[in-house]
Q: What sequence folds into this?
């Protein structure tokens, strides 16, 4: 490695302030990290916005590939920034010159004609010569990815996700128009959610449910107690989370890491929470009946769990316990410390 390489960077798809606490807890060979921000986490409203997002991924990956000799370590907070950097290194067979880490890795197989091409592309990204470490949010998922791509299991970092604590800022937000404080259940998220199961089960639950998703398209009529909102994204969702009586996270594929941000935001705001199991959320964050409730994806079991969460005195303090668990275990700073410790122990 060249002596004049001195910069360690975290490449983010959001405002730098959102990952500053993580960056501050990172070191590599006793050197700190700076954040390079390239916004691509904007609202996905149509095919053009999707194409724009992927174009940014490739542009950023290429940008750092062309200037690669400036950096000791490159960490992609947005996984594709690090993965596509590794892809270009692999494609052109250049001399390795830095340590590369892709955070928050998930892989979802494409359908149809794109399936083989995407798998080939991802194998190039996961070249063991250029990509030093992967970070995932579940031990089970680490095993799956290692088996699927032949990526060494000992080079996969497993931590829970981490978010910044915004309790003081968010807990006082006004109730969204048309709703009353702590008088509705909430399900929110666009990826890997089983809203069909949720709606089917909720037909027999006499309590208002709000579903927020810009992606889910319900076929047929919704039950009268269920409201679907498709035009609320990002920070606009915070008033709903802060004022719901119950957060429900129905996961579709339990092996795929998703829903972490929603779960941790709800925990930080002292919300009662139900998570379907099996799921990576159940594996990594939830202690059943202590900081949240787990429900099997069986309609009657789910209905019973919802009713208990809403009405049982046994779970009155579940929200307070969730907040305590969050503060102790799931900050973004603690996430960065684990990652930093791992890459420094394995540094040559």
A:
């Amino acid at each position: 490695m060249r002596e004049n390489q001195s910069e360690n960077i975290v490449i983010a798809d959001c405002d730098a302030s959102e990952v500053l606490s993580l960056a501050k807890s990172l070191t590599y060979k006793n050197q700190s990290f700076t954040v390079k921000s390239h916004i691509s986490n904007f609202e996905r409203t149509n095919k053009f916005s999707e194409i724009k997002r992927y174009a940014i991924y490739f542009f950023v990956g290429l940008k750092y590939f062309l200037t690669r000799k400036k950096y000791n370590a490159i960490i992609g907070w947005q996984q594709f920034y690090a993965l596509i950097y590794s892809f270009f290194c692999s494609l052109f067979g250049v001399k390795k010159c830095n340590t590369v880490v892709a955070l928050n890795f998930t892989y979802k197989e494409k359908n149809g004609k794109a399936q083989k091409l995407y798998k080939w592309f991802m194998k190039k990204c996961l070249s063991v010569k250029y990509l030093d470490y992967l970070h995932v949010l579940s031990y089970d998922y680490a095993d799956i990815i290692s088996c699927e791509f032949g990526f060494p299991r000992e080079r996969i970092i497993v931590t829970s996700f981490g978010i910044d604590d915004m309790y003081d800022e968010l807990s006082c937000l006004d109730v969204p128009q048309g709703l009353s404080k702590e008088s509705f259940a909430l399900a929110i998220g666009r990826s890997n959610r089983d809203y069909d199961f949720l709606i089917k089960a909720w037909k027999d639950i006499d309590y208002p449910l709000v579903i927020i998703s810009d992606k889910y398209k319900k076929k047929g009529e919704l039950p009268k107690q269920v409201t679907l909102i498709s035009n609320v994204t990002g920070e606009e969702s915070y008033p709903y989370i802060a004022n719901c009586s119950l957060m429900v996270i129905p996961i579709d594929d339990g092996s795929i890491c998703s829903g972490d941000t929603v779960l941790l935001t709800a925990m930080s705001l002292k919300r009662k929470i139900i998570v379907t199991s099996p799921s990576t959320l159940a594996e990594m964050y939830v202690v059943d009946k202590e900081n949240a409730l787990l429900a099997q994806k069986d309609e009657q079991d789910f209905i019973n769990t919802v009713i208990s969460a809403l009405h049982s005195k046994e779970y009155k303090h579940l929200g307070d316990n969730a907040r305590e668990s969050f503060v102790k275990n799931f900050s973004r700073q603690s996430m960065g410390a684990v990652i930093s410790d791992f890459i420094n122990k394995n540094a040559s």
